[in-house]
Amino acid sequence: MIDLAVDKPGKFKTLENYNQSLKEGYKLLPFRFIRLDEERYVLTNDVGEYLVISQGSLPAFVNKTIEPGSGLYNDLKSKHFLLDDDSSIALELVAMKYRTKMQQVSSFTGLHMFVVTLRCDHSCPYCQVSRQSEDRATFDMTIETAAKCLDFTFRSPSPSIKIEFQGGEPFLNFDLIKWIVLEAKRRNEQHQKDVEFVIATNLALLTDDILSFCLEQDVHLSTSLDGPQDLHLANRPRPGSDSYQKVISGINRVRAVLGPDKISALMTTTKASLGRSKEIIDEYMRQGFNAIFLRPLSPYGFAIKTKWYQSYDVQDWLTFYFEGLDYIIELNKRGYPFVELYAGIILNKMFSPWGTGYVDLQSPAGLGISAILFNYNAEVYASDESRMLAEMGDKQFCLGNIHENSYEEIMLSEALLNPIEQSIVESVPGCQDCGFQPYCGSDPVYHYATQKDSVGHKALSGFCKKNMAIMRRLISLMEDDAEAKKILLSWVKV
Amino acid sequence: MRHMHHTLRILPATIKNMQPDNDASVTEAVDGSVSVVFDLQINSLTAVKKAVYKFAADCAAVLSTKEPNQLEVKLSFPDTTDLVDKRAVVRAFCNEVIDQDLREQIACETEATRNLILAQAFSKTSLLQQD
Ligand code: SF4
To answer: Whose C-alpha in A148, A177, B101, B124 is 20 to 30 A from the C-alpha of B9?
Structure first.
């Protein structure tokens, strides 16, 4: 009999001991499974390997009746689902792969978001936070606050720092952005980190001065494009009804001055977007983008207050998403390379040896660990969504104040550590033995916003329903359509 | 209005799609609730409980023991659930119990290996027994 019992707390037998005791037959390596459809199961393990097997093969595998040397046996073995006499290095390999996947946790906070103002020239009905106001004193971040935020940023042990400017509309406080960029570069002469800057902007207030500063200082821009003109205008009203013209001309100006790869775009799905995924994707292609992130509305801020969030449910969004995904695969098959970025993130979790840094699909949650946000008023939040929740009066995820609390106080606050600890999917009810767990994560702020509990009941969770459906679809596509598989694999960055 | 408690045993032919892949017996009451009886010598209580948790969005469940080793799970559905959906849920629920049982078996067999892998992954040699 194989004896792997833990003799004393914290003591394990060695690998040699383990291998010697394995005489014949095979032994199961740890794995989880979930039904893919009526006929098939997906098996996954901690290193992210997956294998689809027939319904009947699973009990046969568990009961050790799979014929050694058969195709299924070899697949199970090569993907680390079983161990036999010949697999002497398998455990070390699995351990090494697992360690590599988990490295993101130790590299710590990379993304630092600075909300330089809450003021905005747009009045998007689903917007979470912005204000139409001239009141700079109330809604703009000050230099004193920004300086403290930079002190905090450079305390991060991460060798790569990304500073993202958010709003409101950040261009309304561009002088502060300039100061932060120059000051961060000055400080970095000592720290020698890899520092990147991005401004999230609607581009309506873009000027030549802003462009030349971004060119000189290598600042990237990220904008919002919700689809064709009528849809974009309906989603993003501003005085003069010219938000679409402004964003398109802005994109072209940025490309001409900074270069084609210095601008990216994000879209938000509103009720008006449903049924129009193809048009939205066509618009992205027409504007020269080769990727899109099909995003649902978040259950925070004004979206909830104005009932925009309730205007469609996860199922409606999934229908929209899958129409879009099918269309993108179709475009690729016709020779137009185009990527859906959310699928890309999941595929990277499946096939890249590294974990992805995507905050919502991490275990433990990326709160504070991967990203941190400095609000205009000096409050520090664990994520963008947390401050949106705060704008609605719920400061559950407020970690402190940059003027009043130290780095240690903020990073070790209960508001941060509790949800992180509870978000380790390996121990969350429902996720614990879910076959998709290695590719999934938890989103404490989403679950808190929707269920008033940062762990959340997964059977009632839109986050779970969305991810489960997308993972099932991606795996089914790869199993059933060889050409689609090739396309999906091309989205993996190795 | 409260319904009486007598239950209708559904003929296997009429509940074809509700019938699980295991031996659990399924009956539908006049109030629309469905009772599934599991033999605890075959299915574990934890497996049934985990399945109940997983189906919380579709139905509410009350667990009770009738006879030794007989666990009754009474599933109540929202009024909007039609018969086709109900059958699909009951069938999926029973299959989930089978899956959960299998998961228990796998977890039990692989727990020590998992600990070994984690020890190897995170501490290289420091946690390993030297002899
Ligand atoms: S959230 Fe849902 S899909 Fe993700 S691991 Fe948990 S149970 Fe699985």
So the answer is: B101
